[in-house]
Each structure stands twice: as structure tokens, then as C-alpha cells.
Amino acid sequence: MSTIEQLMQEDLNRKNSIVVRATLVSVLLAACVDFFMKKDLALVLSILIGGGIGWGILAILHHFKKALAFIPYIASFLVSAVIFVIMENSISPSAFFLVYFILATAAIYMNGPVLWMGSALGLIVITMFIQLHHSVLPFETKNYVTIYLLHILVTILLSFQLKLAKQLTRQMYKLHSETQEMMAGNQKRQAALEENTAVISDMISSVNHTSQENYHGALEMTHSIADLSAGVQVQADSASAISHSLENTTAMGAEISRLSTELLKDAGAAQSASKRGNDLLTQLEIEITTFSFELTTISQKMFSLSIDVEEAVDFVKVIQGIAEQTNLLALNASIEAARAGESGRGFAVVAQEVRKLADLTNQTASQISTNLGKVKKETDETNSSISAAADNMKANLTLSRESKEAFLAIFEVINALKDKLTSYHQHIQLIETSSREIETAVNDFSSVVQEASASLEELAATIHSQTEQYSHLVHSLEDADTSMHKLIQLYRE
């Protein structure tokens, strides 16, 4: 926006431009008048040269913006001189009207001193023209007074118009100044508003970026929790399968314990029978028939014992298979516990203990199987010996002592077998107890895993709800950011 001084300077330049053109027109008009009135060529050239020099000075000052304040006064003098020359070359009553061209030229500037100087120059031109040509002019004194009075009245009217124009100009300048102040204030407010809008836009962009990161983080968390929930569900299923397998193992352990109890009872019975056989051998000479019957009974029991031992060997093999399956399940449980991380550490410890017990059970079962093989072998041999002794006893009673010694050996073997069966029974009971404890621990772990799965599902639902809220927030912030950018662009335009 231009200042008042700049506007005044531009107005002065425009007025000077008009006056320079008017001066040129007056010079050309004077030369044309003299030319058409067939004046001397020297006079016409003098007017052109003199007027051209004066006009050239005005044009140079106006073009280079030098002494702009003096151009109105110089132009008034130059126009007055040209008008006087024209009047001198066309002496007539109408020549007095040319004086008003001087007033019109001075009135262009709407400046009091210039107007009054132009009026004074007009009076001087009128006076000089009357003094030089009053004898030629067909006027009386009252007519000259009228000419002076009319010139003064026109000057006064122009001064009144100048005063009104100045008041209007002052009001316009005042309004212009107020407008400038208002626009400056608006520019300051616009700049402040644009700056604050830019700050708010940056803040919205930052919040939008943060919200998008939170939104993507929530999505990733949702996927992670879904994967974790699936893993926990797999662990829960595995725990249920392990619990079911342990139930079967516990039932089989109880059955093995029952069979070992019966086997221990049979071993005790065999021990009693062998002692009884020893007693019968002592009375062999007296009760050969009874002893033969008892010997047959012993042979039958030994055969039953052999069958029981074979069954025990089969049971031991079953125990070995169970121990291997338990070891494999414990290994799988350790792997699943490792996948579970910190929450599966306790279960990993339990799985490790289960593996140890399974290995111990396998080793014990292998030892029992070996011992039972030996027992079966010795039992078969003893049974063969008893059968041979029974056959030979009828033929030769002299072998009774040897048979007695054989029964003593049988007693010792059965006694050792009983001790081993007792130890085997204790191990079986220990396996049964451990299986029940493992089953309880696995059930507890399964409950914990199910609770964790339910908690993860609730957490996943909560995060999904927050993700949707973040999504709505991101869209709202994007709309707000777009609106702020449009507002900033509107301010800049």
C-alpha cells in the first residue's frame, strides 16, 4: 500500500504531465496562429524555438523528476508568455478569453499559491494587453472594469473550489491513512493468525503422525496377541492331551502296582513252599508219598511262578514303553514351555522332573526285566530239577539229601526274588505317586493356561476397540490437517 506522501507525489507527477502537454499545445497553437496570420517567419521560428526551449526544460525536469515543485510556477510563466504572444498576434476583444487558459493551467494543480500566481499573471497579461492596445480595442472603461472583475470572480470561484477540493483531499488522505492503519492491523492479525494456524497445523500433523504410529502399533499388538492366544490355546490342548495321557499312565501304574503286590504275595508263597519242601525233605524217608505230592505241588507253583514272571516281564516292557512315552511328552512339554517364555518356566521345571522320573523308571524297569529274566531262567531250571528230583525220588531215595540242598538253594533264590520284588513294588508305588503329582500339576497348568487364554481374548477385544478409536482419531486429524492447510493457503492468497 502506498503512503500519503507517495500518493501526493504521484498526483503531482500526473498534473505535471498534463501541464507539460498543455504547454506544448500552447506553444504549437501560438506558432500556428502566427503562421496562418502570415506573420514573419522569424517571429514564428522565435516562438517555436523560445517556446520549445521552455517546454524542453519542463519536459526534462518532469522526466528526470527534478525540481518537481517548481514545474507549476515555471509552466505558469511559460503559458502566460505564450498566451500573451498569441493575444499580441490576434488583437481583438475575444483575445481576453485566452487569459482563462492561464487560470485553467494553474487550477490543474489545485494549489493555492500556484492559483493565485496564475491569477496574478493573468491580470498582468490583461493589463499589458490593455495598455498596448486600448486605442484599438472598442471598449470603454466600464468594459475593462468588467474584464478585471470577471477575472477576479473566476479566480475567487476557483479558490473556493480549491478549498473544497483540499477539504475533500484531506478527508480522502485521512480515510487513506485510516485504511492503511486498518490494513496494517489486518496484515498483523493475518500474519499472527497465519503463524498460529501454521503452529496448530504442525501440532495437528505431529498428533496425526503420533496417532498413526499408535494405530499401527495397536494393529501389530492385536496381531501379536492373536498369535499368542493361538499359541496359548495350542499349549492348553497339549496340556489336556498330556493330562489325558497321565491319567492313562496313572491307571496303568496302579494296575502294575496291584500286579506287583500279587507277585510279591506269590513270591512269599513260593518262599513258604520252598521252606516247606525243605522240611519235607527232612521227613523224606518217613513220608515219601506225601513229599512226592508236595513236590508235585511245588513243581506246579514253580510253573505258575514262571508264568507270573513272564507276565511281569511283559508288564515291565509296558512300563518301559510308558516311560518312553512319558519322556517324549515331557520333551514336548519342555518345548512348549520354552515357546511360552517366562510364563512357561515353572512348567518347564515340572517337565524336566518328569523326564528324570521317566528315565529312572525306564532304567529301573530295564533292571527289573533283566532280573526277572534271570529269575525265570533259574525258576525254569529249578522246576526242571524238581521234576527230575520227583522222578528220581521214587527210584533212589539216596538223592533226598541232594534234593534238600537243592531246595535250600531254591529258598535262597526265592528269598532274593522276594527282596527284588519288594524293591520293584516300592518303585512302582513311587511311579504311581509321581504320576498323580504330575497329573495334578498338569491340570493346574491347564487351568492357568485357560485363564491366560481368556485374559488374552479380553485384552485382544480391548485393543481392537482402541484400534478402532485410533482409526477414527487418525481420520479426524487428517481432515483437520487438510482444513488447516486450506486455511493457510487462503491466507497466503
TrEMBL record:
InterPro entries per the UniProt record, alphabetical: MCPsignal_dom
Ranges that cross the membrane: 43-61, 68-87, 93-109, 114-133, 145-165
Cellular component, GO annotation: membrane
The keyword Membrane is annotated on this UniProt entry: yes
Gene3D superfamilies in the cross-refs: Methyl-accepting chemotaxis protein (1.10.287.950)
Sequence ranges assigned to domain Methyl-accepting transducer in this UniProt record: 210-460
Keyword Transmembrane helix: yes
One Pfam match: MCPsignal
Entry's Gene Ontology BP terms: signal transduction
Keywords, in A-Z order: Membrane, Transducer, Transmembrane, Transmembrane helix
Entry protein name: Chemotaxis protein
Organism: Peribacillus deserti
Source lineage: Bacteria, Bacillati, Bacillota, Bacilli, Bacillales
